[in-house]
Each structure stands twice: as structure tokens, then as C-alpha cells.
Automatic annotation (TrEMBL):
A single GO BP: enzyme-directed rRNA pseudouridine synthesis
Gene Ontology cellular component list: cytosol
Domain RNA-binding S4 positions: 3-62
Pfam families, per database record: PseudoU_synth_2, S4
InterPro entries assigned: PsdUridine_s_RsuA/RluB/E/F_cat, PsdUridine_synth_cat_dom_sf, PsdUridine_synth_RsuA/RluA, PsdUridine_synth_RsuA/RluB/E/F, PsdUridine_synth_RsuA/RluB_CS, RsuA_PseudoU_synthase, S4_RNA-bd, S4_RNA-bd_sf
Lineage: Bacteria, Bacillati, Bacillota, Negativicutes, Acidaminococcales
Protein family: Belongs to the pseudouridine synthase RsuA family.
Protein name according to UniProt: Pseudouridine synthase
Gene3D superfamilies: Alpha-L RNA-binding motif (3.30.70.1560), Pseudouridine synthase I, catalytic domain, N-terminal subdomain (3.30.70.580), RNA-binding S4 domain (3.10.290.10)
UniProt entry keywords in alphabetical sequence: Isomerase, RNA-binding
Entry annotated with the keyword Ion transport: no
The EC number(s) this enzyme carries: 5.4.99.-
Length: 241
């Protein structure tokens, strides 16, 4: 079956589909020995020879890792500003994996790393509504009516958000902070921070603690581990695969 070249590269674990597009347009991909730079080209991966930087792509064994992204790390495999990136942590892994979705530079927490392009696309597809839960710390004592605004959805410049699940953890009256968990299924850029800005309580600390059925437990910052068979099965179910 013929598929777009960037999809073939993603399925082979070369990079995410977005990064694969950059690799193609940079002239780093050859098909049957000829450089291909057009993104619309389709091929049957079983009938052609595809190489990246002179190395044939291989259908690697699928790999799935839970990674605890620290703050101050960009969710890419390289960075033109020479900031720390995901690649700095996974360079010794036997497989070439890429992050599923993004956490912004100052957000820490759970990130899935894989070379399974089909699973990655399914998890990020808006219609599948895979939940993501974050631990939020904001300065000030947030009144319940403001938390209710998050629960109902708030208006942002790119449209209203879907209702969120908000669980209050604690009011730290002594230090003047509110701690709560918020669960969303949308994937807009910096969405939690923008939602908290909208209710007048900018985020101080933000950490993703759940992605679908996966929970960030017993894992240090900058560390990763393979998913268990049970976790992978639950994740596939959440992604509707």
C-alpha cells in the first residue's frame, strides 16, 4: 500500500511525522537512490529502498518509554538555540524514539517516547480525546467560582476550551498558594497556562502527572523506563487502537 513518505519515516521510527517532513525537505532522504524533497510523494515501503543520511531505514522493534521531562528541556530531538533537548537523554537507547506531543520548556512531567508512529498519531488525534492530567501550583487562594470556570470551560483567543476536571488538592494559606489537579483532553499550545491566566491566577509550577492510563510514579526527573505490557495494552485502548 502506498503512503506518504513522511508517514513511512514516522512508522519506521526515524522521527515524528512533523520532524520527518523537515528531514525530507532538507534533502536527506533517498528513494531508490534518488533524493526526494516533495512532501506529497507516496511509496509502497515494501517495494522501494528508502534511506536517510545514507542509511537504509529499518523496521525496528517497537519501543515504548515513559520519560520524566525536567523543566528547562525542549520537547524536540534538536534545538537551534542549543538548549537541552530530549535527544540529550535518549542518545544511548538502542532504538530511535521520538516524543508524543509536547510539554513546554518550563513544564515538567510525563512524556511518552516511542517509535510507533501509528500509536503516536492515534494518541494525538483530537477525536480520541485522550485525557492528560496536570498538577498545578498558582500564587494566591483561588476561590471556588474561579475553579468552576475551569470546569465549565474558559474563553481563549482561539476559542472556548472544553470543560475540564478540576480537583482541589490544598490551600497553602501560610505561603499563599493553591494546589490542584486539572484534566483536559485538548492539545492546544500552553493550554493550562493560558486557562489559568484567563481566570487571573498565572501558573507558578506545572507538571503532567498522567497521560491516558499512564501515571508518573517512582520515576526521577530525567529518567525513563519501558512500559509494561499492561500499560501498553491500556494505552492502545485509550487511543482506540
Amino acid at each position: 500500500m502506498e503512503e506518504r513518505l513522511q508517514k513511512i519515516l514516522a512508522a519506521a521510527g526515524v522521527a515524528s511525522r512533523r520532524e520527518a517532513e523537515k528531514i525530507i525537505t532538507a534533502g536527506r532522504v533517498r528513494v531508490n537512490g534518488k533524493v526526494v524533497t516533495e512532501l506529497g510523494c507516496k511509496f509502497d515501503a515494501d517495494k522501494v529502498r528508502i534511506s536517510v543520511d545514507g542509511k537504509p531505514i529499518a523496521q525496528e522493534a517497537k519501543a515504548y518509554y515513559m520519560f520524566y521531562k525536567p523543566r528547562g528541556v525542549v520537547t524536540t530531538m534538536s534545538d537551534p538555540q542549543n538548549r537541552r533537548s530530549i535527544a540529550d537523554f535518549v542518545q544511548n537507547l538502542p532504538e530511535r524514539v521520538f516524543p508524543v506531543g509536547r510539554l513546554d520548556f518550563n513544564t515538567e512531567g510525563l512524556l511518552l517516547l516511542t517509535n510507533d508512529g501509528a500509536l503516536a498519531q492515534a494518541l494525538m488525534h483530537p477525536s480520541h480525546e485522550v485525557n492528560k492530567t496536570y498538577f498545578v501550583k498558582v500564587p494566591g487562594i483561588v476561590p471556588q467560582e474561579k475553579l468552576d470556570q475551569l470546569r465549565l470551560g474558559v474563553k481563549l483567543e482561539d476559542g472556548p476550551t472544553a470543560p475540564a476536571i478540576v480537583n482541589l488538592r490544598d490551600y497553602d494559606h501560610e505561603r499563599g498558594f493553591t494546589l490542584f489537579d486539572i484534566t483536559i483532553h485538548e492539545g492546544r499550545n500552553r493550554q493550562i497556562r493560558r486557562m489559568c491566566d484567563a481566570i487571573g491566577f498565572p501558573v507558578r509550577d506545572l507538571k503532567r502527572i498522567k497521560l491516558g492510563p499512564l501515571q508518573l510514579q517512582n520515576l526521577g526527573r530525567g529518567k525513563f523506563r519501558s512500559l509494561s505490557e499492561q500499560e501498553l495494552s491500556q494505552l492502545r485502548k485509550a487511543a482506540k487502537l
